[in-house]
Amino acid sequence: MSQSDDAAKAGSRRAFLKNVAVASAATGLSGVVGETLAQTGNVANPTGPASKPATPATIALNKQYADFLNFADVQDFEDAKRGLVATLPEPVIIKGQGEFPAWNLQQFAFVSGGPENNAPSTVNPSLWRNAKLNMNHGLYTVVDGIWQVRGYDLSVMSIIRGDHGYIVIDPFITTEVASTVWKQLVIPHLGDKPITHVIYTHSHVDHYGGVRGLVSDEDLKSGKVQIVAPVGFTEAAVGENIIAGNAMGRRASYMYGSLLPRDPVGIVDGGLGKTTSVGTITLAVPSMFAEKTGQKLTLDGVEIEV
């Protein structure tokens, strides 16, 4: 096969992937992933199997963690509150009138207390401590000119101040969460400035799904907003969330326990965040790419090294 044939095939493949991504974005990314999350996330299964108490083996193993870990160390709890600017008055984000919430931190209100070990017998003490830390939520200052919004999705959204506006990194899973956070936390406390760039750090849906809650089609088409991602991002996102969407959706349901009740015998935490938000998953195709380690990109006056 000639080099020209190879180039033509590669170009056709890129065009196909872009068309799939654009079409998927218009329908909430893939119907598979969108529907799976809508059916399972934040909704306990009322007909599922009855919960069981911790077995003696579980109790014994959890006690090993309780005896080994230093629960007198409060540094994590101090760090988790540092830099807090503001929180949503109620940590509940409604999808629309009469609909179930896209996000509801209040359903985890049973997770409470300080750094001391008061874990139920069904929960590993380390996980219970992490679950307490993940109850913190709001807009936080990291350093001057860099902020994060935490506690409203599985992932964290970061914001960098540029010369003319904001650079957003990883805009959550759903548009409902991204839009609410921007309107109710970012604009009131940081100022109403345009978004110039959105960075996807990688192809997992919790790092790009909420993008169209922040930017419009017009701004994307005009180039007013640039989408920055690792090279190969679109192919990876399509492969993971559309071609393998059914399997990934089921995997996510098991991994995050989304069908379990929110209680000490169900789901208490998702590890890196409380759980996944539920709502509209979208995608904006990248217009700029990080191609190699050490590459330098200047985005709205901010130099970023890959």
Automatic annotation (TrEMBL):
InterPro entries for the chain: Bact_Alkyl/Aryl-Sulfatase (IPR052195), Bds1/SdsA1_MBL-fold (IPR044097), Metallo-B-lactamas (IPR001279), RibonucZ/Hydroxyglut_hydro (IPR036866), TAT_signal (IPR006311), TAT_signal_bac_arc (IPR019546)
Domain Metallo-beta-lactamase, chain residue ranges per copy: 155-265
Origin: domain of life: Bacteria
PANTHER family: ALKYL/ARYL-SULFATASE, ALKYL_ARYL-SULFATASE BDS1
Protein name: MBL fold metallo-hydrolase
Upper classification of the organism: Bacteria, Pseudomonadati, Pseudomonadota, Betaproteobacteria, Burkholderiales
